[in-house]
């Protein structure tokens, strides 16, 4: 097995001998390079790459106004060398994975862990709000955050870690006129789609979001696999992965046991599209 560092942008590629599938692995809003997940996937015989898509040299300093073209070169490289191309993203990375699936017909499968069905405003305290993503220099349509609902969630937490599920739902209601344009056109994804969501997700209601993706694709006679666990949270742990340290500013929901149980439930479906 060969492991190499990628540059421009920064990243990693782990290549087992004889691999026929290449998978791009995208982190959530941490922006980290998913080294452990790449190594785990490579142990199952697939080539796995992960890149930094914000916070690096020449990139946005936060998860805001990030060009979707950032992923073009690594996708093209994987596509040129492997028979099958998959994108696997978590949370903010699942948002990117679904968007990339609508833009790149060569992608054979999209796996979204703790996904969303709309594009959101970028994660920034700067106002006015801007999109998380750009495409050809233009902002991808987005749903803004409800700042008042976020402040209320922090207040209600009373010094404990806040849950933002209600704040996300409030934003969808408050900015309902923005939702149609911001909804990811998942019916354009020609490949397979697997979504993984925990019913105990306290960051955002990922099961509701995953079901919204499935409904939209079902309306176009497209199959979508959704794997859920009633108690799992936002950070799903796949078999063989360590439990990574997440920011302690939010309530992620779930527990290590339930998060691992959901990862175990989801793994056969993920392995099938790999």
Describe this structure in words.
The chain has 274 residues and is of the alpha/beta class. The protein has a single domain, classed as Alpha/Beta hydrolase fold, catalytic domain (Rossmann fold, 3-Layer(aba) Sandwich). 31% of the residues lie in helices and 19% in strands. The protein has 8 helices and 11 strands. The protein has helices at residues 35-42, 72-81, 92-103, 147-157, 165-174, 179-182, 206-218, 256-273, and strands spanning 2-6, 11-15, 21-26, 47-51, 66-67, 84-90, 109-113, 133-135, 138-139, 192-198, 225-229. Strands 1-2-4-3-6-7-10-11 form an 8-stranded mixed β-sheet, sandwiched between helices. Helix 4 packs antiparallel against helix 5. It starts with a strand and ends with a helix. The relative contact order is 0.13.
The strands making up the biggest β-sheet line up spatially as 1-2-4-3-6-7-10-11
Characterize the quaternary organization of these chains.
single chain
Largest sheet: 8 strands, mixed
Please report which band the strand proportion falls in: under 5%, 5-15%, 15-25%, 25-35%, 35-45% or over 45%: 15-25%
Rg = 18 Å
InterPro entries: AB_hydrolase_fold, BAAT_C
GO biological process, one term: acyl-CoA metabolic process
Organism: Nocardioides albus
GO molecular function: fatty acyl-CoA hydrolase activity
Short recap of the structure:
Residues 84-270 form the BAAT/Acyl-CoA thioester hydrolase C-terminal domain. This protein has 274 residues and is α/β, with parallel strands linked by helices.
